């Protein structure tokens, strides 16, 4: 993400349509593709969730 760091994350809840802008400084050490996505999944997906499901509740 060369020159792509803005310090913000736009989060869109596709179920509710809610849109929020979050400070991304807590993710700065994880930026770089997969590490960033893994950190979000680690924090937000409950243990034991079957990731092959079409929809994660």
UniProtKB/TrEMBL annotation:
Gene Ontology molecular function terms on file: iron-sulfur cluster binding; oxidoreductase activity, acting on the aldehyde or oxo group of donors, iron-sulfur protein as acceptor
Could you name the domain of life of the organism this protein comes from? Bacteria
Q: Where is each Aldehyde ferredoxin oxidoreductase N-terminal domain found?
A: 7-50
Can you name this protein? Putative aldehyde ferredoxin oxidoreductase
């Amino acid at each position: 993400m060369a020159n792509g760091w803005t310090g913000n994350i736009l989060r869109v809840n596709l179920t509710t349509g809610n849109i929020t802008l979050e400070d991304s400084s807590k993710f700065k050490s994880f930026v770089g593709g997969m590490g960033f996505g893994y950190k979000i999944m680690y924090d937000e997906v409950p243990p034991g969730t079957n990731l092959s499901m079409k929809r994660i509740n």
